[in-house]
Amino acid sequence: FPGQGAQWPAMAQELLRTCAPFRAEIEACAAALEPHVEWSLLDVLEQRPGAASLDRVDVVQPTLFAMMAGLAATWRALGVVPEVVVGHSQGEIGAAYCAGVLSLDDAAMLVARRSQLIRALSGTGGMAAVQLSREELDERSRRIDPSGEELAIAVDNGGTSMVVSGTLGAVDALLAELEADGVFARKVKVDYASHCAQVEPIQAQMLEACATIQPRVGHTPMMSTVDLRLVDGPELDGSYWFRNLRQRVRFGEAVAQLLDSGFSAFVEVSPHPLMGVPLAGAFEARGAGDETLFLPTLRRDQGGLEVLDGRLAELALAGAPIDWSRHFEASGEAPQLPLPTYAFQRRRFWIDRPTRTADAGPAKATDDAAPAADNPLATLAAAALEDGDLDALADELDLDQIERVMLAKLAPKLGRWHVRGAQERLAATWRHRVEWARVNPSVRGAAASPRWCLAHIPDPETGQPDPSTAALLEALRRAGQEPTLLRCEPGWTREDYRRALAEGMGVDAGPGARALPVDALLSTLALAEGEPTDGRPPSLETLERTTALLQGLIDLDAEALVPTLPRLWVLTRGAAGPHDLRAPEQAMLWGLGAVAGVEHVSLWGGCLDLPPALTDALDDPHALASALSLALASDESQLALRGGQVQAKRLVACPDHGRSGAQPAWSGTALITGGTGAIGGHTARWLAREGIQRLVLTSRRGPWAPGAAELEAELVALGPSVELVACDVADPEALGALLDRLRREGPPLR
């Protein structure tokens, strides 16, 4: 349960319409909050005219508590019951309620009064996110404020993810010092300072407000980020909740303890993930990146029940225990299967594929690579054709004299077919295709916060970064990164780029100069492509500029003024990836990268393709930051970001759909009646694995049958084209029309 910052305007609207457990919990929260606030929770969540603003701390914190409560109730209704809960700052109130330690009335009163008292502190302090270890930050803070009364570490998320809190003067002094030393730091958008001495003036009011709270032993253990231990419940009284506001949030240490205790799946209960990056760092620090799952609940602009169904599937695939009876009870979609009216005879009708014990390989031109155990007669025929011993084959087949004459006439043609089949199978081993595979940044050891320098061409009217680059810059800042900028001009040559890079690194002073304080260059030149100028396509201009930028880097490297130079990464949009390829002209940059990656290994980083709609990538800044971190931390040079997932380009061998012996060649169209049912689905999967060219599945409901969409996606992934048709095979006219259409369209029906 995270703290503040996960909110977005329509975060509850879809679930309020479609999910009964969520709406019931939200309505209960609204009733519990009503005595303590002057605004309506449902007005805020449904964005009604005149609703209170989420910019107010005394509105956003109770609203986020209600969202956490509603989402936790939904998870439980879907069959997911936590083994332990942990909260971050105000998120501990949601965790305590979810664990059964606080009643809803107590939790609602607590979050309302807590946020109202915080609002009274507005203007008295500030907070800032800092990328330093706890020890380094503590040392710097004490130099500025030895007493610890004006400046303190407020949040320890683990590793180098820290937040400081204090008076405005002390926070500004620390930020100035960090900026001078090149350390990343930025202010948090709040005008108060929590988790430090600045909240002590409201201690008496906080304790008075909490005097009526009656904590109890919960039904779920809770890991306290205040005391750093599992709590039973009764100790979470008024004094605890003031310490929750006053003391440091020890989230990183709490997660480390949970990992050491064997927990391997972490679900963030919020409308948008905030803790993904800190958790990924914690997983890596404990060497648990391969075995540990982080799962958000919702994401910005993705707030429907289908998102939760997808999350549930991910949990199930990860091996998490799920009470499926609750899921079906909540969704009303429990499958109803008619039982047979007679006992099964247990006869098996599935067609088994022959199992190869070894790959014979193309030892000779006529080798059919078919083991005798699979088809002894086919093996005998192959040997007879190769050796010219047709009498042995005729004896085995018990042919009469006329049939022997016919066999002798057929033998040359059969031999040519046999050799051609072997040649085709040999050629199949040389064929490869491109696939895109998901890459988990936490598994590959991605850097937590790399330092990027963005090469861009400014807007000619404003002189500022173009809108695409500006949006990218803002997204990276929201993800906790602070890139620097390399200003370029449209008509620059390689020498101009070399000079700009040299100035940025201060290498004109001669050998031994300092290196550019960045990990890599990131070209955004392709993001702002506009209309053609002077009849030249913008993609060609982008290619020329990127080439000149790379050449400038090569020239600077040849001068050997610094030991190492940052590598160049190029961003494209819709040029490459698993889908949404709307800008194939930008693939020229990927062609440049294929050459540069071979000829200039130390200077070329790679290409990262973003979705054609840039907002799809920028709305999830943490996914974008993870992709860029992975680019630096791994040997991947061809990456794409789609749907919040990082995918890498792979060259894989094409499946060999060749058939040995007497097996048929699965070309053409297979029509399966009842294709969306259980038996039809099994048959379709088998045909798809065997290499069928086209599948047509009919049923009464066709594409609207339960599970049809999932079956179609599964079959398409296996290779064939798939069509779902609503057709009652008991209707001669409908079936005849379908058969006529399939015969016209081809490939031929089998």
UniProtKB/TrEMBL annotation:
Q: Name one Pfam family in it.
A: Acyl_transf_1
Specify whether tRNA-binding is a keyword of the entry.
no
Going by the UniProt record, its keywords in alphabetical order are: Phosphopantetheine, Phosphoprotein, Transferase
From the Swiss-Prot or TrEMBL record, what is one GO molecular function term?
Answer: fatty acid synthase activity
Gene Ontology BP annotations: fatty acid biosynthetic process
Residues of the Malonyl-CoA:ACP transacylase (MAT) domain? 1-302
- Protein name (database record): Modular polyketide synthase
From what organism does this protein derive? Plesiocystis pacifica SIR-1
Taxonomic lineage per UniProt? Answer: Bacteria, Pseudomonadati, Myxococcota, Polyangia, Nannocystales
